[in-house]
Design brief:
Layout: H1 5-16, E1 25-30, H2 34-44, E2 50-53, E3 70-71, H3 84-92, E4 99-101, H4 107-118, H5 122-149, E5 161-165, H6 168-183, E6 189-192, H7 193-199, E7 211-215, E8 219-220, H8 223-238, E9 241-243, E10 252-253, E11 258-261, E12 268-276, H9 282-286, E13 296-306, E14 315-318, E15 323-328, E16 331-340, H10 349-362, E17 376-382, E18 389-392, E19 397-401, H11 407-428
Parallel strand pairs: 1-2, 1-12, 2-9, 4-16, 5-14, 12-19
Antiparallel strand pairs: 3-8, 5-7, 6-7, 10-11, 11-12, 13-16, 13-17, 14-15, 15-16, 18-19
């Protein structure tokens, strides 16, 4: 990766140059969550003049704001898998407290559901998990490179990660998939309960579990702080323009540019190309352009609390309860629950209470639960095959969408991929 001073100098010079005859910038990036921010970085560091467009007043206010905070490069298993067939009735009947489905007769939901079920085979699970692992490797390398050249604080750490399993059958299935991860280049071990407790003493309070997957190089970081820190880097070192409080309307596409109006005002952004990084809002934005995005929302919850007397240092996932524990500085971020087909971000007090009580039951002294801050809910943009859609959709429009529960994990790698596609499109013109 080229992070030379000349590349940054070129980017600053191009950004500082006054537009001539309303000349467009090179690329407009729609959305300033972790995916959009990494996309802007990947483009800008290649010398392109970039403008960020975001409807909120600052970056990272959507699904990136308070998610599980785990950079799960080696835990990118496809959601669609054969074992879900036997669990599906319980999900539909609300018998599974952690994973629920809100069925709908909406044609897009039905098409998505059928595509998801087609992916619930052993062959497709392997294929899609392998594709996600390749992206995980790329993302880990890209994020490390970014942090090496532009260090800034976002509670980034490498504590390692464990997935805890409370029954032998689930652990055996995980061990089979672990071989694939080792082939992808990740260090991962299957350990018994006793060894897991040696690695993370806080697990002495975890009750009965039969074993764990242990990946010592896994990372964590606060995605909201990351977005804010990276924005400072983009403005300072690469001259990136940020248009916040900008509700993007339908773009006007001409042979040489894309003009994005702000709804209800006269503000516009004009660029030669546009990259859509709008998460769960992408389908509605793209539909009038004739571009279909197979994405459904998966609602999840989180809360933060001060560290408890036995707060784990290792990043933990209780697979039975589907709850993650992530230490961020002096705070424990706890996240979980999954509700497919729910479109609102309102915090349901009963669901948040279920998350808090589930976490307390799993690790009673991981956090000071009675001092938990207000909960948060966000919508993960799920694709039926669990692989993000990163592609050129038309002459001027590129997509970087559908990252599901792994947007934070995949952001850096997907940004690099779409930037390469934009540069390849530019090469076609010369």
């Amino acid at each position: 990766m080229d992070h030379s001073r000349s590349a940054k100098g070129e980017a600053r010079a191009r950004a500082a140059k006054a537009p001539e005859d309303d000349a467009p910038v090179d690329v407009a990036v729609l959305g300033a969550g972790v995916v959009g921010m990494c996309t802007a970085y990947a483009l800008a560091r290649r010398g392109l003049r970039v403008v960020l467009v975001e409807r909120a007043g600052e970056p990272g206010r959507g699904t990136s704001f308070a998610n599980g905070a785990q950079l799960s490069f080696a835990y990118a298993d496809a959601l669609a898998q054969p074992s879900l067939w036997r669990k599906m009735p319980g999900m539909l009947a609300d018998l599974d407290p952690a994973f629920r489905v809100r069925p709908s007769f909406d044609p897009e939901f039905l098409r998505w559901g059928l595509a998801f079920l087609r992916n619930c085979t052993g062959a497709r699970f392997s294929q899609k998990t392998w594709a996600a692992l390749e992206l995980g490797v790329e993302s880990q390398v890209a994020l490390a490179d970014m942090c090496a050249h532009h260090p800034f604080a976002f509670d980034h750490a490498r504590p390692g990660k464990m997935h805890l399993f409370r029954d032998d059958a689930a652990l055996a299935r995980a061990e089979e998939v672990s071989q694939m991860k080792r082939e992808a280049g990740f260090e991962q071990h299957v350990v018994g309960a006793a060894q897991a407790r040696e690695i993370e003493p806080a697990l002495t309070e975890a009750g009965h579990f039969v074993g764990a997957l242990w990946t010592p190089e896994e990372e964590v970081g606060d995605p909201y702080l990351f977005c804010r820190g990276l924005l400072r880097v983009l403005r300072r070192d690469y001259g990136v323009i940020a248009q916040f409080d900008f509700a993007a309307g339908a773009p006007l596409i001409t042979p040489d540019s894309v003009t994005i109006p702000e709804r209800g005002s006269l503000r516009t952004v004009r660029a030669r190309r546009m990259v859509v990084c709008l998460g769960i809002d992408a389908p509605a934005y793209l539909a009038p352009l004739g571009i279909r995005a197979a994405i459904q929302p998966m609602k999840g919850y989180s809360f933060a609390a001060p560290l408890g007397a036995h707060a784990p240092h290792v990043s933990l996932t209780d697979t039975a309860r589907k709850i993650v524990f992530c230490r961020l500085g002096k705070t424990m971020r706890i996240a979980g629950l999954a509700e497919l087909g729910v479109h609102d971000t309102a915090v349901d007090p009963a669901r948040l209470r279920a998350l808090v009580e589930g976490a307390r039951a799993g690790l009673p002294h991981a956090a000071r639960y009675d001092e938990a801050k207000d909960g948060w809910a966000g919508l993960r943009p799920m694709r039926p095959d669990s692989v993000p859609e990163v592609r050129r959709a038309s002459e001027r429009i590129f997509l970087n969408i559908g990252h599901g529960m792994l947007g934070w994990t995949f952001a850096a790698g997907c940004g690099e991929r779409v930037a390469q596609q934009v540069l390849a499109a530019d090469c076609e013109l010369h």
